[in-house]
Design goal:
Number of domains: 1
Largest sheet: 7 strands, mixed
Number of strands: 9
Shape: globular
Order of helices and strands: HEHEHEEHEHHHEEEEHH
Mean pLDDT: 95
Radius of gyration: 18 Å
Low-confidence stretches: none
Distance between the termini: 31 Å
Structural class: alpha+beta
Number of helices: 9
Length: 248
């Protein structure tokens, strides 16, 4: 196991302990779920962990993780211009690792409602792309003053997407640029199914096989060695958020 994998596993256990304590439902998904099913743990070359939670629980999650995570080890990033919060490993120099975009982190993606009718879906898709586009633009703004002036925009587009959802819709979505592959019925998540995950366990969505097959195809066959790379990417605007929060 790599040093980054060891850190990610420690981070996951600390997050899991808090969410379980407060009886907050969560799931692992994407590459993390593939790792559990294919490797009984992390994909050996992965570089982050993906956790999904219900949007209705986000306020409580932000509260308990901000309060109960060890602040000497972690920076809990409540985003001003991203789709979701993150738990970030502080290491020896958190400010520099945020600048260099190489700090180990865990994503906490909210599962949001999505409309069931075609017209509403077209409108919702436009709002999700508006959310993603403004996040990308704000992430490239260097001025903190300008960032503060613009950071209301992603949340505005998200509220418009939620406004598009028709009553009684059974569909969900996870906001990202790949959202079109992550639209699933509510009951695909269901009661979490526990699975071996290194020396602990992790909760999978009830219909994880259908979900991963839809997103990736044959996810149980590892990619060629030259394609075995981490997910890439880094939390948007996190360094500016860290500075604005006045973190030590």
């Amino acid at each position: 196991m790599t040093e980054v994998s060891k850190i990610l596993l420690e981070m996951y256990k600390d997050i899991k302990k808090i969410l379980d304590k407060h009886e907050i439902t969560f799931y692992i998904q994407y590459g993390t779920a593939i790792g559990a099913l294919r490797h009984n743990g992390l994909i050996p070359w992965d570089d982050d962990i993906d956790i999904l939670v219900w949007e209705k629980d986000m306020d409580e999650i932000n509260e308990v993780l901000s309060r109960e995570l060890d602040s000497s080890k972690y920076y809990y990033h409540i985003q001003t211009a991203d789709t979701h919060p993150h738990v970030i490993w502080k290491g020896d120099n958190i400010e520099q690792s945020l600048k260099d975009k190489n700090a180990p982190f865990i994503d906490l993606f909210p599962i949001d409602p999505y409309p069931s009718t075609k017209l509403r879906q077209v409108l919702a898709n436009a709002m999700i792309w508006g959310n993603a586009g403004t996040i990308w633009a704000i992430d490239h703004v260097r001025s903190i003053r300008l960032h503060k002036l613009l950071c209301w925009m992603p949340d505005f587009f998200k509220k418009l997407e939620l406004w598009c959802v028709d009553e009684g819709s059974n569909l969900t979505v996870v906001f990202s640029t790949g959202f079109a592959h992550c639209i699933f019925p509510f009951d695909y998540y269901g009661k979490p199914t526990m699975h071996v995950f290194e020396d602990t366990e992790a909760p999978l969505p009830h219909e994880i096989h259908k979900m991963l097959t839809h997103i990736y195809g044959d996810y149980m066959t590892p990619p060629p060695e030259d394609k075995r790379v981490g997910a890439g990417g880094f939390p948007c605007s996190v360094y500016k958020d860290y500075i604005m929060a006045g973190k030590p």
